[in-house]
Amino acid sequence: MSKIVFLDVDGTLVDYHNRLPASAADAVARARAAGHRVVLCTGRSRAEVPDFLWALGADGFVGGNGGYVEYDGAVVLHRTLTGDECRAVVAWLHDRGCEFYLETNAGLFASERFVDAAAPVVARYQAAKGAPARPVVEVFHGLTLGGDLHRDDVNKLSYILNDPGDHRAAVEAFPTLQHGTWGGRGALALFGDMGPTGITKKAAVTALLDHLDADPADTIALGDATVDLPLFEACAVGVAMGNASDDLKAVADHVTGDVEADGLADAFAWLGLLGR
Fold it and tell me: pTM to 2 decimals?
């Protein structure tokens, strides 16, 4: 029976150096050759996906943690902040002194001092993932400094947390938006994010399955982080990476190896996706 595999990217398909293990690329190719469909399902927006991942030939793409869905080149779903919402959030972040970047399918657009402010934060993020620090412009693929920060095509935006109070204040200031934090293993919060309300990987899976008239019983999810919990809720089988957060491991049907130790390939083998 053909399966639809929803595959998280960071910490699942690629390691914390943004490298694609050869075993993972081979597993995806073999699964697709065996008739299974593979959908990348990530917090990244389309512009943040490098060419070597598009070269895998995935059947579909879920970006912005669920705000954007495409399949076989056709857009199935795209929800963004309105222009007014974007302008209000940008003004608020400037007033509060929080550097930020806007995530769009056309690229990442950062506030003027984002790179300097993000350098120590990114170093902590990399350390939490067990990886050496890399330059900010390498970590955030497709980053542009300045430019037009008043846009109507923003999937979501992320901002540096100067302290935990920034996140609480953002929730109070913009109660109609969806809020989250991210930054490393476990519950470490280095960045806050804001996007259209109701956006989750679960909602994206539901939209794509409706579009394909596909059975949820034929779905498989692989992930590594708390943000993947809704993805696991939406799919019939959930596999957590060995480097996954404890909350995701707790609800997984199977825990495979670490992303840097052929964990994805081992998971595909365990799932019976590789064919003969």
Answer: 0.90
